[in-house]
Specification:
By secondary structure, the chain is α+β, with helices and mostly antiparallel strands. The protein has one domain: Electron Transport, Fmn-binding Protein, Chain A (Pnp Oxidase, Chain A), CATH 2.30.110. Strands 1, 2, 3, 4, 5, 6, 7, 8 and 9 form a 9-stranded antiparallel beta sheet that branches. The protein is elongated and about 55 Å long.
Length: 196
């Protein structure tokens, strides 16, 4: 990377990096999402990014899931994407907000019907006594929506991570990596390089 490139908007930099990665056959949808509960105990899991624009990074989930409960209690979160084939990593830290009902409806309507039914049937993150319980719930939902479109469950929708920092990591020989940090100020982004 060159210092002159550090002036780019970080979302534009991310979108350009994601395009370049996809052209190299890299799946840019999965990302590690880190959350913490009200006591500060962390957890992390892979989510699928379903939209990235100037407003932030969007993923969808059951609002009763562990991640959603943690985000309700503590809206600070972090995303990380590592693309080993390109020796690039992008870290995003910020706060989350729910996307609008219209955005959630639009995304849900485009999901495969099997996934729509699954969203209704799964009590995500709750204890499951036996697989047969889930399969029974799936049959109930299939019967309920037989012959009609599957509506979005009121307990399911999207979150948007609004970034306050974004770090771009580029692998270099001898572990002398390049790290470019963007930090959001009141109405602009500041940039700076970090030691490896």
């Amino acid at each position: 990377m060159f210092a002159s490139e550090s002036k780019k908007d970080p979302i534009e930099r991310y979108l350009a990096a994601a395009t370049r990665a996809r052209e190299q056959g890299v799946d840019t949808v999965p990302a590690a999402l880190g959350t913490a509960d009200a006591s500060g105990h962390p957890s992390v899991r892979i989510v699928l990014l379903r939209g990235v624009d100037q407003r932030g990074f969007v993923f969808f989930t059951n609002y009763d899931s562990r991640k959603a409960r943690e985000l309700a209690a503590n809206p600070n979160a972090a995303l990380c994407q590592h693309w080993p084939a390109l020796e690039e990593q992008i870290r995003v830290e910020g706060t989350v907000e729910r996307v609008t009902a219209e955005e959630s409806d639009a995304y849900f309507a485009g999901r495969p019907r099997e996934s729509q039914v699954g969203a209704w049937a799964s009590q995500q993150s709750q204890p499951l006594a036996a697989r047969e319980v889930l399969e029974s719930r799936i049959r109930e939902i299939e019967t309920r929506f037989e012959g009609t479109a599957v509506a979005r469950p009121p307990f399911w929708g999207g979150f948007r991570l609004v970034p306050r920092t974004m770090e771009f990591w580029y692998g270099r020989a001898g572990r002398l990596h390049e790290r470019l940090l963007y930090t959001k100020t009141e109405n602009a982004w500041t940039t700076g390089w970090l030691f490896p």
